[in-house]
């Protein structure tokens, strides 16, 4: 396990992680400019953890760590793409001190690897605001392909914002 000191590793959420995860989703400074969507129920994550451990057949959350230090969270949920088809939609939130070091890129790549290894869905997609250049670079480095702009896609901080959609399919990921 000494190798884990120098590389990002994903693991299930533990009860000790819940305080940081709540900060990353319910504190404007910790969440950061592109992830702050307003206050929400502060007990939501704890209840969800007690009910499901943050892992269900339709969604999940893992924590990326480096040397045992929690860097943030990665999450996914099943999203309908047609009458009988679905894909995974994933997201990432890093603690402020973990941003800008490439940890998010590695965490996203590891999550795609995990989802393709343990589920049968063929596509993983992610969206980010059009002015979140750091996340766009991170997704591209993680093997995602930019597909296009979604106009007026997400409401944050009093206005509708355009987003960029990225995806990776199994055959793309196998090439990386």
From TrEMBL:
<dbReference type="GO" id="GO:0008999">
    <property type="term" value="F:protein-N-terminal-alanine acetyltransferase activity"/>
</dbReference>
<protein>
    <submittedName>
        <fullName>GNAT family N-acetyltransferase</fullName>
    </submittedName>
</protein>
<feature type="domain" description="N-acetyltransferase">
    <location>
        <begin position="8"/>
        <end position="165"/>
    </location>
</feature>
<dbReference type="Pfam" id="PF13302">
    <property type="entry name" value="Acetyltransf_3"/>
</dbReference>
<dbReference type="GO" id="GO:1990189">
    <property type="term" value="F:protein N-terminal-serine acetyltransferase activity"/>
</dbReference>
<dbReference type="InterPro" id="IPR051908">
    <property type="entry name" value="Ribosomal_N-acetyltransferase"/>
</dbReference>
<dbReference type="InterPro" id="IPR016181">
    <property type="entry name" value="Acyl_CoA_acyltransferase"/>
</dbReference>
<dbReference type="GO" id="GO:0005737">
    <property type="term" value="C:cytoplasm"/>
</dbReference>
<dbReference type="InterPro" id="IPR000182">
    <property type="entry name" value="GNAT_dom"/>
</dbReference>
């Amino acid at each position: 396990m000494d190798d884990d000191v120098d590389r990002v590793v994903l693991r299930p959420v533990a009860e000790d992680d819940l305080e940081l995860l709540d900060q990353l989703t319910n504190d404007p400074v910790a969440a950061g400019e592109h992830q702050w969507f307003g206050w929400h129920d502060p007990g939501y994550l704890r209840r969800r953890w007690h009910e499901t451990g943050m892992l269900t057949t339709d969604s999940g959350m893992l924590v990326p760590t480096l040397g045992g230090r929690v860097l943030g969270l990665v999450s996914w949920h099943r999203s309908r793409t047609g009458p009988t088809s679905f894909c995974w939609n994933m997201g990432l939130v890093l603690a402020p001190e973990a941003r800008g070091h490439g940890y998010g890129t590695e965490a996203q790549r590891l999550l795609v690897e995990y989802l393709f290894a343990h589920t049968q869905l063929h596509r993983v997609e992610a969206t980010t605001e059009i002015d979140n250049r750091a996340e766009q670079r991170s997704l591209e480095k993680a093997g995602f392909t930019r597909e296009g702009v979604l106009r007026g896609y997400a409401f944050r901080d009093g206005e509708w914002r355009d987003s960029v959609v990225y995806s990776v399919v199994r055959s793309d990921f196998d090439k990386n």
